[in-house]
């Protein structure tokens, strides 16, 4: 069998040849890739030559070409367009990939070479990026357990393999549970309040899922479903929220307990007090105390703000206390009454194609001078995945951007950015990046009209894409979004501001039929209305961040039993302990479907990073507004000092180089309505 992964792609920018790739190619490519890299690493570790940066660090950066190609393609496709075959491959390869990483990171001869270079780094006279890469390699191996004894290393391998299997099982359970929990309704009357296009989409969704003649609301990845703000029938609202909150309650508690216990054991093995301690020591936050101080310091003002909102909603609804399923519905009523803002009135001005081309792409051209040209001759991994070539202001090529914006049954929930090719001057590679969203696909022939939240999400994920596209480093280890996890959301959050920047907004917010601009003042009133909801949004987020924190600071011996009741009790106790338990505001992700922290480890004990990054974001938005430079001049500075450097220098040093000082928290407090 000819396997496309075994040699570099000949397509532009090494785009994977998706028209040639079949499901049966992945597993053999993984096996060949792991074998190839282990042979390469053995040659590096066993070299009779004294270690040099070139024959050790650069050699490691060059290793694993086949494994890199198949991994980037596979994990993108399993998220975006999975199948039972791909899920089986994922389940089989996850523990093997964990063992493969351990075989490299715990190789004593290899670590001895890296450690020797690290100890003499001052004499090597490396350039700043190379020195930083050497330091990151050394830290990676130490944190992976390279200094442990043999018995401890063997136990660590067992833990990592079991965690990999558990994380994959959790993700697949969430995928199945989310689809099974979709709300099936018998009549269109039950959907009263939704736009006609949304009702038609629910009917098409019903047909697609085998419920002919019925209406199906598929669930988003988070707790409070967007339809809750429009559905007039309170019974339907309660059914929808209950379906959302119940996901994973039966299938995932035992996995949650096992992962929490294993992560705590691994942290102790490596000399840390908790998994949170293990994670944060390698982030910009630095200490558990710094994170806890920031999160808990926001709780009081946020809860007070949310309680004021709850009182206003109860008054509007004519009840003593607002219920969770009714919060978003009555929030929309208050927005209409107080601010003359109706979400349904905005949708006709927020057509997807215009938001993409006249919004996100236009903003990137205004700020960074780059342009996007669709390449219909290049195929993505799915017919709905569209490929665009990205060109710099001087006409030079940058890379490829793939946009995959619609929801489908084979795609997991949420929104994210992936890489298919990582930028690297060492490997002479330009980036290929992907954005995935879950916008409900409209009926054939009708436009996709977005909510303002969906517009913001599109700009946010596009910010991650720009971080990858504008990377300009030598080593793949530090390219693009390979930064501290509590820093990675910062550039993407900054990019959200362009959605409401007057020049950009006027260019994309046009009525999809008449071409008229969105009515003057509507966005300003919308921003005022959003300020009313900051209490809800901050409490909803803080509850999730603190729930993550609770799971990853609990000692292994105190972890709850792996039952639904025990997990629910742990959640309730944690939220009460931190002061964010508001029954009217469900946590943004309950444990059973908290994929950020249990489907993998990138955000485990790291969900706090969104608001940690938002401190930098809010400060940066102020700089863009007040520095006296043109958008283009400001964009060049931000690109040069932040986006292009990736993780090739200390994150806060990069921020200081851009901002001229360290971050200040006041702009965030003002934005979130928390300033005293």
- Tell me about the largest β-sheet: 5 strands, mixed
The low-pLDDT segments are none
**CATH architectural category of the domain at 347-531:** Orthogonal Bundle
- Supply the helix-strand structural class: mainly alpha
Number of strands: 7
Distance N to C terminus = 67 Å
What percent of residues adopt helix (DSSP H or I)? Answer: 55-70%
Strand order of the largest sheet: 3-4-5-7-6
Number of helices: 27
Return the CATH class of the domain at 347-531.
Mainly Alpha
Mean pLDDT figure:
96
Helix-strand layout with pairing:
Elements: H1 23-45, H2 53-62, H3 65-80, H4 84-105, H5 108-119, H6 121-124, H7 128-143, H8 150-180, E1 183-185, H9 196-208, E2 215-217, H10 234-245, H11 253-269, H12 275-280, H13 288-317, H14 324-339, H15 343-346, H16 352-368, E3 371-374, E4 386-391, E5 397-406, E6 416-421, E7 432-439, H17 452-469, H18 489-495, H19 502-508, H20 522-532, H21 534-551, H22 564-578, H23 595-598, H24 609-626, H25 631-643, H26 651-659, H27 666-671
Parallel strand pairs: 5-7
Antiparallel strand pairs: 1-2, 3-4, 4-5, 6-7
Helix pairs in contact: 1-2, 1-3, 1-4, 1-5, 4-8, 5-7, 8-11, 13-14, 13-21, 14-20, 16-17, 16-19, 17-18, 18-24, 21-22, 25-26
Give a brief rundown of this model:
The chain has 676 residues and is mainly alpha-helical.
Task: Please tell me about this protein's structure.
The protein is 55% helix and 6% strand. By secondary structure, it is mainly alpha-helical. Among the domains are: 4-147, Glutathione S-transferase Yfyf (Class Pi), Chain A, domain 2; 182-237, no CATH class; 347-531, Neurolysin, domain 3 (Orthogonal Bundle), CATH 1.10.1370. Strands 3-4-5-7-6 form a 5-stranded mixed beta sheet, with helices on both faces. A two-stranded antiparallel sheet has the order 1-2. It is globular and about 80 Å long. The mean pLDDT is 96.
């Amino acid at each position: 069998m000819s396997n496309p992964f075994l040699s570099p792609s000949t397509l532009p920018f090494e785009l994977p040849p998706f028209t040639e790739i079949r499901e049966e190619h992945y597993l053999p490519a993984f096996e060949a890739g792991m074998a190839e890299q282990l042979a390469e690493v053995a040659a590096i570790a066993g070299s009779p030559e004294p270690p040099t940066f070139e024959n050790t660090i650069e050699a490691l950066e060059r290793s694993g070409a086949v494994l890199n190609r198949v991994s980037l393609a596979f994990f993108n496709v399993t998220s975006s367009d999975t199948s039972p075959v791909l899920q089986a491959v994922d389940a089989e390869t996850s523990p093997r990939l964990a063992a493969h990483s351990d075989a490299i990171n715990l190789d004593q001869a290899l670590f001895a070479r890296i450690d020797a270079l690290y100890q003499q780094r001052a004499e090597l006279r490396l350039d700043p990026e190379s020195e930083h890469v050497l330091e990151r390699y050394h830290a990676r191996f130490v944190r992976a357990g390279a200094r442990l004894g043999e018995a401890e290393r063997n136990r660590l391998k067992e833990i990592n393999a079991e965690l990999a299997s558990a994380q994959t099982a959790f993700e697949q359970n969430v995928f199945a549970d989310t689809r099974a929990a979709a709300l099936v309704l018998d009549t269109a009357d039950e959907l009263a309040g939704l736009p006609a296009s949304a009702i038609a989409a629910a009917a098409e969704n019903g047909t697609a899922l085998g419920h002919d003649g019925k209406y199906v609301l598929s669930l988003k990845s988070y707790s409070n479903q967007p339809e809750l703000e429009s559905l007039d029938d309170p019974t339907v609202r309660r059914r929808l929220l209950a379906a959302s909150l119940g996901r994973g309650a039966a299938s995932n508690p035992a996995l949650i307990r096992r992962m929490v216990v294993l992560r705590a054991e691994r942290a102790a093995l490596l000399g840390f007090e908790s998994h949170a301690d293990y994670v944060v020591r390698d982030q910009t936050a630095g200490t558990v105390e710094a994170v806890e101080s920031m999160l808990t310091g926001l709780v009081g003002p946020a809860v007070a703000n949310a309680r004021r909102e709850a009182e206003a909603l109860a008054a509007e609804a004519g009840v003593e206390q607002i219920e969770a399923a009714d919060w978003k519905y009555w929030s929309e009523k208050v927005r209409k009454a107080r601010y003359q803002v109706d979400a349904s009135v905005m949708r006709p001005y927020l057509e997807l194609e215009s938001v993409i081309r006249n919004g996100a792409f236009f903003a990137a051209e205004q700020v960074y001078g780059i342009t996007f040209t669709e390449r219909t001759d290049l195929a993505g991994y799915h017919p709905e995945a569209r490929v665009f070539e990205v060109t710099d202001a001087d006409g030079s090529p940058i890379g490829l951007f793939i946009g995959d914006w619609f929801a489908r049954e084979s795609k997991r929930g949420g929104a994210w950015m992936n890489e298919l090719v990582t930028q690297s001057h060492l490997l002479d590679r330009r980036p290929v990046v992907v954005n995935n969203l879950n916008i409900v696909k409209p009926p054939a022939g009708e436009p996709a009209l977005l909510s303002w939240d969906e517009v913001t999400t599109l700009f946010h994920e596009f910010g991650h894409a720009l971080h990858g596209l504008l990377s300009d480093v030598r080593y793949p280890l530090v390219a693009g979004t390979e930064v501290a996890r509590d820093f990675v959301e910062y550039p993407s959050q900054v990019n959200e501001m362009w959605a409401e920047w007057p020049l950009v907004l006027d260019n994309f917010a046009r009525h999809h039929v008449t071409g008229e601009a969105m009515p003057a003042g509507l966005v300003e009133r919308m921003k005022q209305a959003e300020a009313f909801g900051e209490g809800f949004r901050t409490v909803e987020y803080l509850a999730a961040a603190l729930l993550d924190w609770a799971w990853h600071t609990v000692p292994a011996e105190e972890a709850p039993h792996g039952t639904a009741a025990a997990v629910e009790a742990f959640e309730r106790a944690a939220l009460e302990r931190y002061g964010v338990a508001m029954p009217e505001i469900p946590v943004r992700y309950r444990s059973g479907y908290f994929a950020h922290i249990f489907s993998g480890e990138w955000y485990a004990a790291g969900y706090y990073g969104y608001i940690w990054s938002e401190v930098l974001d809010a400060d940066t938005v102020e700089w863009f507004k007040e520095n006296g430079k043109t958008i283009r001049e400001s964009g060049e500075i931000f690109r040069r000092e932040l986006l292009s450097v990736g993780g090739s220098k200390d994150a806060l040093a990069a921020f200081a180089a851009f901002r001229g000082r360290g971050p200040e928290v006041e702009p965030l407090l003002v934005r979130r309505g928390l300033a005293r």
